[in-house]
Amino acid sequence: MADAIALLAAGRRRFAAPPLAVLVLRRIAVSLLLLFAVSVLVFAGTEMLPGDVAQMILGQGATPQALAGLRAALHLNEPAWLRYLHWLWGLLHGNAGHSLVNGMSIATLVGRRLVNSLWLALFTTVVTVPLALTVGITAAIWRGTAYDRVVNMLTIATVSVPEFLFATVAVLIFAVRLRWLPALSLVMRGASFAELLRAYALPVATLSLAIFAQMARMTRAALVNTLSSSYVEMAVLKGVRPVRLVLRHALPNALGPVANAVALSLSFLLGGVVIVETVFSYPGLAKLMVDAVSTRDMPLVQACAMIFCTAYLLLVLVADIIALLANPRLRHR
Q1: Is 84 helix (H, G, I), strand (E, B) or coil?
Q2: CA 177, CA 238: separation in Å to the nearest integer?
Q3: Cα(74)–Cα(90) distance, rounded to whole angstroms?
Q4: Torsion angle of alpha carbons 280, 282, 286, 292, nearest 10°?
Q5: For the chain, counts of helices (H) and of strands (E)
Q6: What is the full DSSP assignment across 174-235?
Q7: Are 299 and 42 in contact, with CB atoms under 8 Å apart?
Q8: What domains can be seen in the chain, in order of their start residue?
Q9: Which of 85, 129, 241, 276 has the largest CB neighbor count within 10 A?
């Protein structure tokens, strides 16, 4: 009997969940490995883009000797693997190099535009997250009702429409026809609060529509899945009201899936911001990357792409950590 109890205790220790700190460190390690893989893909993808940056800088009338000299000065004649190692080493030390077009430091170019993109993302998040969570939670509370069906139809219709169509229609209606808002979102220094609202209105509205529907639907799905649990059914049998049932019993246990829904929806913001900044000529990081692609400024393109990928992986990492903290059952998987 004692031997059986000892074997059972050993089995429990064997299959016990590792400490939370170990799980978090594992998530961080996986994210770092993914970021390394992304750096390889970004560098390889930019290397395969057509065009010659030396030809673009010197123009069509450049002599072969001048093109060869510029390629040597820019280290473009070195093997791709060697240039990747130099580039990765510089990134690890906070040095992304210099622009091939104007010779300016990439950190300086990115720093100016990154602040503008962060402001745009912040305003979009402040507007979208509370509204989407409210709609998703209320749709889960009154699931099966006319309100829930209307929310489902509107969110599906919104998800089906791409961001560039939202942006184009918004410009045609509010900038061209009604002339209420500017078509170009240019924020000048010393602008008043009203001018800031007018400049950010169309980009924020377009981005908000793009991620609002996805976030609301994922929030509703996470809560409905939790509401089908046995402990929630027991609370229903005890006569708990729907609002209290969701806010007190279901929502705390669905915090992990809801956090994943918010993080994944905000990750779509990184893709939509490229379209929105281009359509509205917003001086952000995405617009800088699009301009760099057109001029074959590969170090600048690579730096911008790595920033977007790092932001995406960071959002997913935060969502995973919140899920581990909110749901102890995930620690046993």
Answers
A1: helix
A2: 57
A3: 15
A4: 100
A5: 15, 0
A6: IIIIS--S-SS----TT--HHHHHHHHHHHHHHHHHHHHHHHHHHHHHHHHHHHTSHHHHHH
A7: no
A8: 15-50+105-332 (1.10.3720.10), 53-95 (no CATH)
A9: 276
Mean pLDDT calculated for residue range 119-124: 87
Q: How many CB atoms lie within 10 A of CB 230?
A: 7
CA dist 251 and 245 (Å) reads 8
CB 297 within 8 A of CB 100: yes
Residue 296, Cβ density class (10 Å: 0-12 exposed, 13-18 middle, ≥19 buried): buried
For residues 26-42, average pLDDT: 90
The percent of residues in the chain predicted with pLDDT above 70, rounded, is: 86
The answer to whether 260 and 327 have CB atoms below 8 angstroms apart is: no
On the question of pLDDT at 182 being above 50, the answer is yes
Over the stretch 228-249, which tens digit does the pLDDT of each residue have? 777 777 777 777 777 777 777 7
Question: What's the pLDDT tens digit per position in 158-171?
Answer: 888 887 888 888 88
pLDDT per position as a tens digit, 240-290: 777 777 777 777 777 777 777 787 777 777 767 888 888 888 888 888 888
Closest CA to 42 of 273, 285, 290, 309: 309
Q: What is the mean pLDDT of residues 300-322?
A: 85
Secondary structure class of 98 (helix, strand, coil): strand
Q: What b/e string do you get for 127-151 counting C-beta neighbours within 10 Å, with b at 16 or more?
A: bbbeebbebbbbbbbebeeeebeeb
- Of 107, 313, 130, 140, nearest in space to 222 by CA: 140
203 CB-near residues (< 8 Å, 6+ apart): 120, 185, 276, 277, 280, 282
- Predicted TM-score (pTM) of the model is 0.77
**Residue 262 to residue 168: CA distance in whole angstroms:** 26
